[in-house]
Amino acid sequence: MRHALLLGRLLNQSLMVEPRALDAMMPGLLSVLLAQAPAPRAMEDDGEDAPPPPPPFVMLAPGIAGVTVHGALARYAGMIDLRSCTMIDSYQACEQRIAAALADPAVRAVALIIDSPGGEVSGCFEFCDRLAAAARGPKPIWAIADDRACSAAYLIAAACAQAWATETADVGSIGVMGVHCDMSGYDAQMGLKYTYIYSGAHKVDGNPHEPLPEAVRAVWTAEFDELRAMFAGRVAAWRGLSLDAVLATEARVYAREAALAEGLVDRIGTLDRMLVEMSAALAAGESLPRGAAAQIPGNRKGEQMNTVANPGGLAPLVAALPQTSTAAVAPPAATAPGAVDAQVAAVAGPAPASDRNAEAAAIVERCAQAGQPARAADFLGKGMSLAQVRQILNAEEVAAAEKTAVSSYGGGGAATGGAPPAAAAPKIDIAAIYSRMNQVKG
Questions:
Q1: 396, CA 20 to 30 Å: which among 33, 60, 91, 390?
Q2: Angle between helix 124-135 and helix 91-103 axes, rounded to 10 deg
Q3: CA angle (414, 420, 426) in 5-degree steps
Q4: Pure H helices in 58-180
Q5: 255 pairs with which residues across the strands?
Q6: Domain 2-46+54-178+216-293+432-441 in CATH: superfamily?
Q7: Residue 327's CB: how many other CB atoms inside 10 A?
Q8: How far is CA 209 from the centre of its chain?
Q9: In this predicted model, what pLDDT tens digit does every residue of 26-43 receive, in sequence order?
């Protein structure tokens, strides 16, 4: 029965999932359903108590909570028996874990560790809108694709203040899909014939006992195009990209430098590298970079997205944030208010194309985040693209972080004859980090 419920969440539904993951799930589910095989023992109610749930988060480093997003994503935690489907997570449960971490007074920032192919459209946009606002609040949220953040899972990463990816990670797949299962051939082999009795011309559109009519396919395709535009609009707003550039990815999955060049991630690095940088900033009393403005695009009717509270979720925390937390992130103190716009206008020319003007603004903001606002004029004067600027600054930041990390692990300082660093990043036990992550995975 539960296999049938799971298929009901997959077939004839709008999905934001990486197709290879769906292709891997479908044959097994269909074979169990068609063979009417008994449910695995793990799914039976044998009277035994379910194992206690894992903690909502773990402290990976002082002040930094780790929250996992692992497996395919459904809307609600109670939709699937998670004892038998350990690689299914939900937006509801993810939001509650993040909210629990942010509410803890010992937590100063959150590291979201993502390994997911995506999942349902239902519930994803609303969750990510709240996440985008919370991620740029007093306790920033950074995300890392370790090792996959595709489709709906990528939207979660894009909503965060910073998005990282490991060297082997896959990110992207900014698209929407659905699957129709035509069982008419199987029905004929089994001697079955289904007759629908209905009122309303479209009541049985897409039913599995006949081939999908072309008219229905066209309607569904238009719906998916609309949802993809909503998806891409959020990525563009949160990542500082143009909508055309995001749509031009055509739902491609990117790896490593390709993802970096497209602006889908801020950095390529490991979880421990990200934690070192977060820890160093927190130890020095600095504010963590918080990425682009948490703009929330409208829905298909041009209205603000529904933000109905998820019990135990982020809505109360978002409502309590200062009004400036969801506005444009201010540049560093060295850049006076209004100077960014003036700098863009001076370098970009009197009447630039709209997309170039937006890219110029993103270049100025990226330089400001790197603490080097003066370099924006040089980059823009040379006609460099945002991707090129990001690549240069990212490489410089990686080199600086590696130098800091060497010192923090005892590789520099007095032992090598140099002066000890002024504020070395704390040592981080990587083995302990992954051990704690496994506790959260359950």
A1: 60
A2: 20
A3: 115
A4: 91-103, 124-135, 152-159
A5: 170
A6: 2-enoyl-CoA Hydratase; Chain A, domain 1 (3.90.226.10)
A7: 12
A8: 36
A9: 554 455 445 544 444 444
For position 396, what pLDDT does the model report?
A: 81
- Kindly list the domain boundaries of the chain, sorted by start residue: 2-46+54-178+216-293+432-441, 335-408
69 touches 114 (CB < 8 A) = yes
Beta bridge partners of 96: none
Query: Which residue in this structure is represented by tokens 């971490």?
Result: 101
* Cα–Cα distance measured from residue 277 to residue 425, given in angstroms and rounded to the nearest whole number: 8
Of 360, 166, 353, 381, the residue nearest 257 (C-alpha): 166
Report the amino acid identity of residue 48. Answer: E
Return the DSSP state at 79.
G
d(CA 62, CA 107): 8
- Identify the CA nearest to 260 among candidates 383, 357, 369, 385: 385
Q: At what angle do helices 152-159 and 124-135 cross, to 10 degrees?
A: 20
CA atoms of 151 and 12, how far apart (whole Å): 18
Per DSSP, the three-state class of 16 is strand
Task: Give backbone dihedrals phi and psi of 343, rounded to 5 degrees, phi first.
Answer: -65, -40
Q: In 242-291, which residue ranges form alpha helices assigned H by DSSP?
A: 243-247, 256-261, 271-283
d(CA 273, CA 430): 10
**Distance in angstroms (rounded) separating the CA atoms of residues 296 and 220:** 25
Helix, strand, coil abundance in the chain, percent, nearest 5: 45, 15, 40
Contact in structure between 370 and 393 (CB atoms under 8 Å): yes
Encoded tokens for 2:
């539960």
Give the burial string for 388-406 (b: 16+ CB within 10 Å, else e). ebbeebbeebeeebeebbe
Question: Which of 159, 125, 119 minimizes the C-alpha distance to 229?
Answer: 125
The radius of gyration of the chain from alpha carbons, rounded to an integer in Å, stands at 24
Torsion of CA 386, 388, 270, 367, to 10 degrees: -60
pLDDT in tens, 132-158: 999 988 899 999 999 899 999 999 999
CA angle, 81 then 83 then 87, to 5°: 85
Most confident of 198-207, 226-235, 345-354, 355-364: 226-235
What is the spatial distance between Cα 127 and Cα 135, in angstroms, rounded to a whole number? 12
CA distance 327 to 210: 50
